[in-house]
Amino acid sequence: MLAAAAAPTRTIAAPVSCRSAGRREDGGGSATARMPRAILDLFRKMRAGEFPDGAHVLRAKIDMASPNINLRDPAIYRIKHATHHNTGDKWCIYPMYTYAHPIEDAIEHITHSICTLEFEDQRPFYDWLLDKLADGGFFTRPLPQQIEFARLNLTYVVLSKRKLIQLVDEKHVAGWDDPRMPTLVGARRRGYTPEGFRRFTDQIGVSKSDGWIDYSVFEACQRDVLNDTAPRRIAVLDPVKLIIDNYPEGQSEDCFAPNHPQQPELGKRVIPFSRELWIEREDFTETPPKGYFRLFPGNAVRLRYGYVVQCTGCDRDAAGRITAVHCEYLPDTKSGTPGADSVKVKGNIHWVSAAHAHEAGVRLYDRLFRTAQPGQESGNFLDDLNAESVKVIRAQLEPALKDAAPEASFQFERHGYFVADHVDTKPGAPVFNRTVTLKDSWVKTEK
RNA sequence: UGGGGAGUCGCCAAGUGGUAAGGCAUCGGAUUUUGAUUCCGACAUUCGCAGGUUCGAUCCCUGCCUCCCCAGCCA
């Protein structure tokens, strides 16, 4: 790139160099008096490393009276005694990005060079440079065109490289592939799908007004895709025992659950049922709030894909914590049998047979930041880190989940979408990452 | 201050002279063995503000207001 860029400088109307002390406002005048040959000679000495950093700079002569400062004889090469990965220490000048960029675009036959809004007032220089180089025969028209659009700002997310590096370096996250990171490797471990990203980009559009896309738009896109593609499975994330007192000890039977309620062609899987099950702690309460239709003493619910049970009470330990919930099942109500609908219930909770469950690690991820625009208030985005952006738990899974393949996504019914982590999952010992929760209108009515 | 941009529903975003698409969110209601999904319905007499042109303006003109970016030998 350096070599390619060096040649064209000779064609610029009158490239000039000036003393390091001179800024744009006062540096142009003396240089116009210099002869091109003298300037070329000086430039070669700059390149050869005969001057210290900052001693000279090569500037393009354009228009010192321009209201656009980028046209006031901008610097295009400066001296830097840096070791280059290709040229080593032989070449001591480096082009400015604003100078190199249009040339690179032209060399690569770029037609539309898309960039962000902050480069808008750089465009006149971009056009000026390529126009000069085309006049000099280095490039043919039509020339590349720089077109600016707003960058993507996503609420609750930081995307700047500087900030991402800081998150990793200062170990606020586990690494570049931490599932909370908005990186390709992070998104992949999180279980976000490529199709979900495509849907997202289709929906947010492209414009020149800089705004903030709400993270819920992104989540909705991921849910859309996962809802169609992810097989359903049962996982109890916060287990408490449910004991069916009138079900024989030691007995078990098979229940059948569809892999996808909207796609029966995907078949069913077997889920073992027995006397002692794991259910979610939050699916039972002794003091039900208004509208609560899960387990509470006297109430009946369906054990999804199994029987209807009636709650009889619970056990507590010395500290008052519930250790087990008790119920009795209605033998004729098994899902899939003629009597299944003989008893109507509103509630429907999931469960896993304690004797058949597979315990596994699950990471519940949430937004990395707790404010929509991290750092907006305090000026330091780290102040807005969400302390609860990850919760590592042990969950009780249905047997079919034991052999989940790395990167396989599932919907854990009533919870959300989860993916088998491709780094930590071992054969027969999956570890799951929560991609995104299901929508939950109950948490809203609760408040 | 000078220069460069942007202002259409809570958040994005079409429309650019003929009387305001769509998505997310929200709120109703139906279906549902996921308080999910799906489905139906509601959701800007109004397009930053004020004038003007026009039969008619979000769109054209004038003025104003607000917000963002630049003023590195950074990218």
Summarize the topology:
Layout: H1 2-9, E1 16-19, H2 24-32, H3 36-48, E2 56-59, E3 75-79, E4 93-95, H4 97-107, E5 112-116, H5 123-135, E6 145-149, H6 161-169, H7 184-190, H8 194-204, H9 215-229, E7 232-233, E8 235-236, E9 239-244, E10 252-258, E11 268-274, E12 276-280, E13 300-303, E14 308-316, E15 322-330, E16 347-349, E17 352-353, E18 358-365, E19 390-397, E20 409-412, E21 416-420, E22 431-437, H10 441-446
Parallel strand pairs: 5-6, 7-20, 9-15, 13-16, 18-22
Antiparallel strand pairs: 1-2, 2-3, 3-4, 8-19, 9-12, 10-11, 12-17, 13-14, 14-15, 18-19, 20-21, 21-22
Helix pairs in contact: 4-5, 8-9
The structure holds one RNA strand of 75 nucleotides.
